[in-house]
Amino acid sequence: MTTNNTAAPTKALKESDIYDRQIRLWGAESQAKMKSSKVLYVNITGTSAEVIKNLVLAGIAATLCDTRPVEAMADAPHFFSPPKTSKKVKYSSVAHAVKPMVEDLNMLLGECPILEKSVSNLGADDLKDYTVIVASQIPLAQATRLAQVASKLKKQFYLADCFGFNGAVLTELGQDYHFRPEQGKKLLEPQPLKEYLPLEEYVKVPLHLTVNRFHKKPPKVYVLYRCLLEYQAKTGMFPSQEEDITIMQDFLKGQQVELDDEHLSKEDLQQLAKAGVAQLPAVCSVLGGMLGNEIIKVISGKGEPANNTILLDGGLCKAWTFLVKAKK
Amino acid sequence: MNPLAGIEATVGKDMLHKIQTSKILLVGGGGIGCELLKDLSLSGFRHVEVIDLDTIDISNLNRQLLFRSQHVGMPKCTVGCQVAHDMVPELEGGESDNLPEVIYKAHHGNVCDASKFHVPFIQQFNLVLNALDNVEARRRVNRLCLAAGVPLVEAGTTGYLGQVTVIHKPSQVACYECKTQETQKVYPICTIRSTPSMPVHTIVWGKELYKLLFHSKEGESMLYEDLEGEEPSTYMESVMKLRKLLWDEGTDPKAIAAAVEEVLQALYVTEIQKQLDMGRYKAAKKTPTPLSNDTLQKGCSSSEDCASASTTNIWSTEHCVAQLVDCVCMAAKMPRNEVLESFDKDDDMAMRFVTATSNLRSHVFGIDPLQSLYSAKGIAGNIIPAIATTNAICAGLQVLQCFKILKEQILKGDNRDGLDLKDICKYINCIRNNTRNGLYITASQLEPPNPNCFVCKNANIPLTLDVNEFTLELFLKLILKKRLGFEEPTIILGGDFIWEEGDGADSEEYESNLKKVLSKLPCGGIQHGSVVEVDDASQNLTIQVTVTHQDVWEGDEVDDNPFIVGDAPPHRHEPPRKETAEPPPAAAAAKPATEEDGDDDDDDIIVMIDEDEAKAQTENGDKKRPALDVEGEAPAKRAKTSHDDEIEVIEID
Lengths: 328, 653
Description:
The complex is a heterodimer. Chain A is an alpha/beta fold.
């Protein structure tokens, strides 16, 4: 094969070769925007590992923020779990263990920086350098706080988790968020979201009111995710091998959601308490792919984004966006 | 801590055990294949075998997550298996004592190779996952799985769109071939040679012109005409002169340049003018305009740097001329064996040549838009966009379907035929813009088989042709192998064999039949109303073909070897997919990617149908018009299917 394009710098040539199949989809302009964007990952879980994998492959640099000890990864191996051969290396945190694997995935991106801060200490100064922030397995209170900070900085924030066969993403796109809708290959003029609700507000909507014409009852996946977050808020940790579902039952009672055998059963809650945030690689793969697409939409400015939650039912193999707001 | 504890808590102890003891076959180790290997290994699958014949290319690295730049050139299946093997979570203490050893086995080869991959081979597995990029291989795996009674989880992606479906004969669900498959993109040759109307037509022409100049056998090009023949095109003489100069040693570069100018003059001026004078374009919507001599001369005397010209801007006509002179002079300087005989999109010179020739032709014929080298490469090389996210989604959905199948297998035990997946598995669509009710991923009921499917319903195939014109050789090549996907057909007429091939077959005995026309074959020959039985042991397929003789073909139907498979009138629009659970997602439901193309762009044959020519296209139940297929793969990859390098050219004008 002869490639005589010596005039172009070696690196540029390599990038256009490696990214060729995607540039043909979203264009060189989008690729340039991706190259100049950075995503901050707060906690690296099976779910966010899939997002990192997709976006790093596509050429969007990652910064890792996860001070949890490496044992936090033990029960949910993912693509960036350190290989067996490096078991003897003692990493000080999840971020440090994952870092070399991320760097190895796309050499063009260079070093993968680590932000050495705990979730509760993250502030505007930390988030300002990123286009997008993706958090996983953090308390809802922290997610709400980070969403507010991100919104003020005009950054996009996502809270994404898979649990059992299900997955959920809560989004904060910001008050002034504009996107360019696609009409076939044509790109239309920028427009705002049809309806914007800040994350801090829509998570306050009582669950029994989170219905619409297609979902006469609150979507089960969303209700279950809120139960997990509630359990975490009450106990400081996500459930695992838990048998007591009192916290969840009380929460649902307060939200006026009734259990029934068809839509949402007591067994569903028992299963949730038992498996907690256990993640199936296949479910993470689907949700991570969907969220990857969303973030590429946001960075490239092309395409209508999901507003304001994304819900995945891996058992039914269905996923949809659901606008959480109070039914009038 | 048990690394699989979370999975066990979710799927249960029995299911985890089933995962750990099942044998999975994965066909294809590319974009979707890598994602599947990751999901399978992390889920704890311990026995996975992978078939793939491809090697790793640099353009794979944006999505094929198991590969790194140091792996470029190595077999995908080998590297994929090694990496995935090491990703299977290690169990502590005695937990793995009663479990099978972790085996991720690579088969570097073509799944169409019947000597290795046959029905008993498939039957070793609990299920098969397809992660393929071409119709031929999909068809093959479909037939093997139907014959073996093994569930097949099929998937395909194009850009943002993806599909997953499950095929299983005992469950009475549609097979891959129940619906029309576009195997090749076909263009009537007169469109390419005389009446181009789209950029792709001139690009195909450019690829043929490349062959005409550089192939060791000029007759391989569809543009070739015998100088001694009846009224050869005006360009042939100058082409033959240039070919001679090219490979003569010590030819003066100036003489080459002059000869190139002559060829261009003939192609873009004289021949066009001749056709105009003959009134060829009287009825045409657009009349071609010969290239101006001024442009030709300016281009030929240009001293622009051609090798480093922009790949993303559109070249001027002068620059196109300069490019062509440069390309041919460059080839003249190279040892003959280093100049590729046919176009290859990854060869810089060939790519510049095709970009320039096709743009000049588009310019002459007033075809919009002109193409940059970058975009011409996409068309000429059949490049289909591919991204990690869509592959990840589809692979994840495939594994979720896998879980459903394995769960059912636990319930039904070893009773292979007792397995009913009809209401358990789903047809899944992944789309870019959500449906009215917000869906990005939709699941609907698997369709029942098409009662007229000759593959899974053994339906009788009506065939119309001229039994006094078709030889057995053409019948085998065009109809049985190309059109119906037979690998090793045995033909039985009135209880007697008239052809067999493949392992252990006595082909010599029947060789004398090859040149005979169908009506003159032994055992009374194939006549109007004959019923011919065709078997293929390699895919456990038997069909009956009922022959209708027709010797008068009119209008469109007139070409050298006309035939009609099926009895339905030509129709190109498929009936809309029946969506039970959800309204059909408009964008994706119209054309399921699994049926047209796969994940791995370049190896694939894209479907790009010219509206005007749609009627001439091949479809189930349609007349087949053998024509020119577009393929632009590197020679190394061409061995992928047996049909790939067979370009068929049939005169229809």
